[in-house]
Amino acid sequence: MDERARRWRLVLGGAAEGALQGADAGMDAALAALYERGAGLGASAPRVARWLGDIREYFPSTVVHVMQKDAIERLNLTRLLLEPEMLEAVEPDVHLVGTLLSLNRVMPDKARESARAVVRKVVAELEARLERRTRAAVTGALDRSARTHRPRRAADIDWNRTIKANLKNYLPERNTVVPSRLVGYGRRQQAVQREVVLCIDQSGSMAASVVYASVFGAVLASMRSLRTSLVVFDTAVVDLTDQLHDPVEVLFGTQLGGGTDINRAIAYCQGLVTRPSDTIFLLISDLYEGGVREEMLRRVAAMTDAGVQVIVLLALSDEGTPQYDHDNAAALAQMGVPAFACTPDAFPELMAAAIERRSYDQRPMAAPGRHP
Questions:
Q1: Which one of 80, 146, 174, 289 has the fewest beta carbons within 10 angstroms of its own beta carbon?
Q2: Which residue has better confidence, 86 or 16?
């Protein structure tokens, strides 16, 4: 069987002509069990565990993650994930963490430690991928926002940037640059320079966003120049700020699913703001409001009028454009509040832009207390 025929045979399954041998036969059986071209996986935990092992052997990890997600959704394997042996067989990823968190309240004790191990592994991988870039972007933005064109002392002058800004004033005959303006550092501050409030919608559709936001919250909370708060909500509001030292604890403090009361969550977060002009409020939500919409919009307007930098992330995940409430997004846009989806890799630059009060595409953001 040539390569083209082999690929079509794997795509079409057992209904196509031609027998497969060796690893190809194993791949075909794994695909058939999931995509209902054969007998299926059934409800046997040992059989499902073997299947999970097979797909890890035959397919790359990116494909394994897709097949696991499909298996959970198509074959209703959620109940089996409460078995420790099942959790040990799966390939951990963000979607699996979201599924486990949705089962948090019904998870038996014997499965809880296995579930924590899965979540801990995913969180560690995300921190390794995202922490360094986030720290670098935020620190650079804070340094740039602290620069001044009137340094008080010679020690406060940033000579590299001063020379770059004055290259047009180079005098060849003297082999020197005559600076017409100085670029300097503001007085370095040991105190908090910005307050960040993360307000996270924990409805079921936001599972991946909850995972990423919790990891970013832990990274931001570890930076002395920021004071970071993290609040999750459905129809109730839970402040998890005191658990930010451990994003795994934050995640197990969430409860995915249920209704949504954005207005109540924003009301709580308003009470956390002590320095409005130095505060970044990130609402991570699909904006489907189950509370009082008009009051929610009034609260956002009040925050921006006070000088708070308000940004709405419709999703913080690797997926494409999410489902969201277009009317609420449009109403926020009229206030000058950006609402858009953001990938985890783009989040560090988003934070840098917010600190410097410029938009994500480099245009200046609205000044405090003004609506464009």
A1: 174
A2: 86
* pLDDT of 366 over the 60 cut: no
Share of residues in the chain with pLDDT > 90 (%): 44
Domains annotated on the chain, with CATH: 22-112 (no CATH), 133-141+190-355 (3.40.50.410), 147-185 (no CATH)
Nearest Cα to Cα of residue 200 among 86, 92, 283 = 283
Token readout for 201 is 């919608």
DSSP 254-321: ----S---HHHHHHHHHTT-S-GGGEEEEEES----SS-HHHHHHHHHHHHHHT-EEEEEEEESSSSS
Quick one: pLDDT band at residue 256, thresholds 50, 70, 90?
confident
Instruction: Compute the distance between CA of residue 309 and CA of residue 330 in angstroms, rounded to an integer.
Output: 18
**Residue 305 predicted with pLDDT over 80:** yes
| Residue 135 phi, psi dihedral angles, 5° rounding | -60, -45
Separation of alpha carbons 198 and 191, rounded Å: 20
Measuring CA to CA, how many Å separate 238 from each of 15, 37, 85, 273, 352?
53, 45, 32, 16, 27
Q: Cα–Cα distance between 82 and 301 in angstroms, integer? A: 44
Which token pair is 29?
């059986």
| Residues forming beta bridges with residue 196, ordered by sequence position | 228, 280
Cβ atoms of 94 and 208 within 8 Å: the answer is yes
How deeply is 185 buried, as exposed, middle or buried, from its count of CB atoms within 10 A (0-12, 13-18, 19+)? middle
Whether 172 contacts 66, CB under 8 Å: no
Taking the C-alpha atoms of residue 60 and residue 65, their distance in angstroms, rounded to an integer, is 9
| d(C-alpha 174, C-alpha 152), whole Å | 27
pTM listed for this prediction: 0.74
Helices first, then strands: H and E counts in the chain: 14, 10
If you average pLDDT over residues 251-261, what whole number do you get? 86
Between CA 26 and CA 33, with CA 32 as vertex, the angle to 5 degrees is: 95
**133's tokens:** 């870039």
**What DSSP string describes 93-112?**
-HHHHHHHHHTGGG--HHHH
DSSP 226: E
